[in-house]
Specification:
about 575 residues; 4-stranded antiparallel β-sheet; 17 helices; globular; Signal peptide peptidase-domain-containing protein; transmembrane; aspartic endopeptidase activity, intramembrane cleaving; transmembrane helix; membrane
């Protein structure tokens, strides 16, 4: 975060003017005309594009949805969590940390007098650090491309949805009336739509099914040394490809220093930041943005630190676009900081989508009350009163994972439409749910960016982009909540786990609206209990294993007391039977 925060804001570093006219304002009409120049359009669309991708990549199961249903033979996946959830104290901590880094870089440049030395060090460091970010971006891009070629469903011109079954290696349709499955004769390839006609021979179909299996299924890698498991993890072919791409780009940038590769690494680090950080709630996110808003204004308008560091450091900590008419740059902090709140807005949209699908199931609650009743002067009897009340229990809709759904959305969306056909419920739930808050934040960010560029061109001076982006994004979000009457819902939404509860019993009024909640079991508590049970079972297993009666999956032990001295294996789930 410190490297992104210490980056420059939008600044026009092209066409330097003589000192006497350096701060002369330009007529607004010329400023508006210059906004159409390529370097400024690239700045805006690059920032919006990576925020759009990062916000969708950072989607998680919302607390209003239940864990996804597992298909036959599918393993339960561990839910992804953000590395760091921001808290209220970060509104004070971040500006102080970022200011310290920025001032340190400024005086280091002054002391070295030659920024080339610092640039070499930073370029090498950032080349290594960017591999993880670029690997994340490249991996998600490869996964989406794979889903485009091998989706799990597609729709024809009549809106009929065909589903692809990799286990039976066929395509089938589901009847709307009876729900029965009907296998389609002649459609036995993993390709959708007109692509299915490309494979006609048995060998070509077999190759495509095997390729789909290779790209989509997880492989298990294990290494054992002297009977003890050293490593064990799941791996896919796409994982190997993502790190190959990331490593190659990082090496190429380190050797060449090309500006295009620097921009690519910068965008990848922004994308990875959305995967790792979350503002936790709208009020915390707004507080952090407000504090960095003040930091940005002070550092650009009242100190020489920001612009000096921006112009002298050549490393992937900013976006730089050049053209025949000049150049412009944008610090990564101006993408990541408002982008985190925009990503939270998209997850709030998903939360509301599943919240609207929550059903209330009536249940009977029986309460027994014991009371003593005197039957005579010396004896007493106890009577029990049974009271039965009708309450309701919340039943959450199961979550649909977004991974692999973008290809489904593409192949189930009719030409000229924006949303999939109604029968493609998975694609709709994962990608086509309503996004009012996210779209509002995108409009606010775009408006703030164009205002920044306009003011910069009019006054011919670098501008603190957060001065315009923070009001644009936060204003758009809170005004949307006000207009929709959901300010209370926005204020109460949090990703700290407190909303992720199950078995909630609620009271409803005559119109079916929830008026009171009671009870509920948190997901975290449930997982903790499962973890303790698992730990106990593993301990028992190890005790039995010490007697030489069983074999550990991670570290095979022979029954005659010998150990595997060294073992390295890569295993894959068995593919379906070949096509006859």
């Amino acid at each position: 975060m410190s490297s992104t925060g210490s980056t420059p804001d939008v600044a026009n570093i092209s066409s330097p003017s003589p000192p006497a006219t350096n701060n002369i304002s330009a007529p607004p009409i010329f400023a508006f005309a210059r906004l159409l120049e390529p370097q400024y359009l690239l700045i805006v669309f690059s920032a919006l594009g990576i925020i759009w991708l990062g916000a969708h990549g950072a989607l998680r199961r919302p607390p209003s949805a239940a864990s996804p249903k597992l298909k036959k033979g599918e393993k339960k996946r561990e839910e992804e969590k953000f590395t760091e959830g921001l808290v209220a104290s970060d509104a004070i901590r971040f500006p102080i940390m970022l200011a310290a880094v920025l001032v340190g870089l400024y005086y280091l440049i002054q002391w070295l007098q030659d920024p080339a030395i610092l640039n070499k060090v930073l370029r090498g460091y950032m080349s290594i650090m960017s591999i993880a970010g670029l690997g994340t971006l490249a991996g998600d891009v490869v996964d989406n491309l794979t889903s485009l070629i091998f989706p799990t469903m597609w729709a024809d011109g009549n809106g009929q949805v065909y589903r692809i079954d990799p286990q039976r290696r066929c395509q089938y349709v589901v009847s709307k009336e009876t729900g029965e499955e009907t296998i389609i004769e002649g459609k036995d390839t993993p390709l959708p739509g007109w692509l299915s006609n490309l494979a006609s021979s048995t060998s070509s179909k077999w190759f495509l099914w095997e390729l789909r299996h290779l790209l989509t299924e997880e492989w298990t890698v294990r290494a054992v040394v002297y009977g003890k498991p050293l490593v064990k993890f799941e791996l896919r072919a796409n994982d190997l490809l993502r790190f190959t791409i990331a490593g190659a780009v990082a090496v190429a940038y380190h050797l060449t220093g090309w500006n295009a590769l620097s921009n690519l690494l910068s965008l990848a680090m922004c994308y990875a930041s959305f995967m790792m950080f979350s503002p936790t709630s709208f009020n915390i996110g707004t507080m952090v943005l407000a504090s960095l808003f003040v930091y940005d204004v002070v550092m650009v308008f009242y100190t020489p630190y920001m612009i000096t560091v921006a112009k002298n450091i050549d490393a992937p900590i900013k976006l730089v676009f050049t053209s025949a008419k000049g150049a412009s740059m944008l610090g990564l902090g101006d993408i990541v900081v408002p982008g985190m709140l925009m990503a939270l807005a998209l997850r709030f949209d998903l939360f509301q989508y599943y919240q609207r699908q929550t059903k209330l199931e009536p249940i009977q609650l029986t309460t027994e009350t014991a009371s003593d009743v005197a039957s005579s002067e010396t004896t007493a009897t106890t009577t029990t009163t049974t009271t039965t009340t009708t309450q309701h229990r919340r039943i959450k809709a199961p979550y649909v994972d977004t991974r692999g759904q973008w290809g489904n959305r593409f192949w189930t969306t009719p030409l000229g439409h924006l949303s999939p056909v109604r029968e493609a419920t998975d694609a709709i739930a994962a990608t086509a749910f309503p996004k009012p808050y996210f779209y509002a934040s995108v409009v606010g960010y775009a408006a703030g960016m164009f205002v920044t560029l306009t003011v910069m061109l009019v006054f011919n001076h670098g501008q603190p982009a957060l001065l315009y982006l923070v009001p644009g994004v936060t204003g758009a979000l809170w005004l949307t909540g006000l207009r929709r009457g959901e300010l209370k819902d926005m204020w109460g939404y949090t990703e700290d786990g407190s909303l992720d509860v199950e078995d909630v019993v609620v009271e409803v009024d005559g119109e079916g609206r929830v008026v009171k909640e009671s009870g509920g079991k948190k997901k975290e508590e449930e997982k903790k209990g499962e973890g303790e049970k698992k730990e106990g079972s593993e301990k028992s297993k190890d005790e039995v294993q010490g007697a030489g009666e069983v074999e550990d999956e991670g570290a095979p032990r022979l029954r005659d007391g010998h150990h595997e001295l060294f073992l390295f294996s890569v295993t894959a789930p068995r593919a379906a039977a070949t096509i006859s």
